[in-house]
Design a protein that fits this description.
Structural class: mainly alpha
Shape: elongated
Number of helices: 2
Largest sheet: none
Radius of gyration: 51 Å
Distance between the termini: 101 Å
């Protein structure tokens, strides 16, 4: 019986010994494959991160260039618009001045003309100049009255704003105290 047990133990050891060698080979092959797979994953991730960084960098650079070009174009447009507005105002003022000059010339010509189209007194029309300088109303000059009225108006506006603010505050407080 000891012989049979001894043979059985040797047979079991041989089976385990040979199967562990086969298992070791399979484990080594699967580890090599796993290592290659992990290496490929890491390399792929590195490529993705590198490409993403390059894309972000290019996008930021393009955005900066677009903003700079937009600001430049806007500055040029504002300059051109301001120049056009200035020219329009200049032309309008020149035209208005010419119209006033022509109108005044026509009016003075009507007064001094010696013909039957206008009611004149033979070309010797004179006008007495009136002045508001030195005139006072209730002891105050027109300039003083102007500032007095502006001050009263400002105080009235401040009082109305204050009143509205207090009403708004009270109305707000009533709604939130319920």
């Amino acid at each position: 019986m000891t012989k049979k047990i001894f043979v059985l133990i040797i047979a079991i050891l041989l089976i385990f010994a040979t199967s562990s060698v086969f298992a070791a080979n399979e484990i080594k092959d699967s580890m090599d494959k796993t290592g290659s797979t992990v290496k490929n994953i890491v390399d792929g991730t590195g490529n993705v991160l590198r490409d993403t960084g390059a894309a972000i960098s290019n996008g930021a650079r393009n955005l900066g260039d677009d903003v700079a070009n937009g600001a430049k174009n806007m500055g040029e447009a504002i300059g051109n618009g301001a120049r056009d507005v200035g020219e329009t105002i200049n032309n309008g003022a020149r035209d208005a001045g010419s119209a006033v000059r022509n109108g005044a010339s026509q009016i003075t010509g009507d007064f001094t003309r010696n013909d039957n189209r206008s009611n004149n007194n033979g070309g010797s029309y004179t006008v007495a100049r009136t002045s508001t300088e030195g005139g006072t109303i209730m002891g105050m000059s027109a300039n003083t009255w102007t500032w007095f009225i502006l001050a009263i108006t400002a105080l009235a506006i401040i009082a109305l704003v204050w009143y509205y603010a207090m009403e708004n505050k009270n109305a707000y407080g009533k709604h939130h105290n319920d």
